[in-house]
Amino acid sequence: MKSRLLIISGALGLVFYLVIWSWFQSQQLKTAPSDGQLRLNATGYGTATDITIITPEGKPVSLSSMKGKVVLVDFWGTWCAPCMQSMPGLAAVYNKYHDQGYETLGVALEQDSGSKIRPVTQKLGVNYTVGMATKRSELDSYQPNSLPMMYIVDRKGIIRYKQTGFDPKVGETDISVTVKQLLEEK
């Protein structure tokens, strides 16, 4: 009788865990489906907090300096294979929409001084702004605990899209559709 009760309790616990895990995953990965129907958060995830990076050339660039533009903030690392897979697609989206008021801000989370940033971005053909955060505290509100992690901020400074991880089947296309929709909002 005790073993039967133990098995039933274990099964219920597993079901509960799977329900909670599914809900958590749906909250963490807010991507646009590849059918072109966007799942933008209409009210947003809150106001984007400012973050300043130092480029490999030593130039400080802040998110607040891009106010009035649609900005994709990409948290990445030179050691992160999915990050490397996503960057050529992000560069293509940047090239397509940059002259329409779109920017990409690549925030590298490196274990050293960032010496690999320039060689990696040159090799991948990345032409958008990249660098390392000047203050660790500026990363806190974004919680980049899994890479790549991307946020798209609308012209008003509201985070409207967030994505954790990279799926090559969706990647560039869905980001492009999302950016286009946000650029069309006035």
List keywords for this structure.
single chain; 186 residues; alpha/beta; Glutaredoxin; 2 domains; 7-stranded mixed beta sheet; 7 strands
Written account of the structure:
This protein is an alpha/beta fold and 186 residues long. The protein has two domains: 1-30; 32-184, Glutaredoxin, CATH 3.40.30. 35% of the residues lie in helices and 19% in strands. It has helices spanning 2-28, 81-97, 117-124, 171-184, and strands at 52-54, 60-62, 70-76, 102-108, 129-133, 149-153, 159-164. The protein has a seven-stranded mixed sheet, covered by helices on one side. Helix 2 packs parallel to helix 4 (171-184). The radius of gyration is 19 Å and the shape is globular. The model is unreliable at 13-38 (pLDDT under 50).
How does the SSE layout of this entry go?
Elements: H1 2-28, E1 52-54, E2 60-62, E3 70-76, H2 81-97, E4 102-108, H3 117-124, E5 129-133, E6 149-153, E7 159-164, H4 171-184
Parallel strand pairs: 3-4, 4-5
Antiparallel strand pairs: 1-2, 1-5, 3-6, 6-7
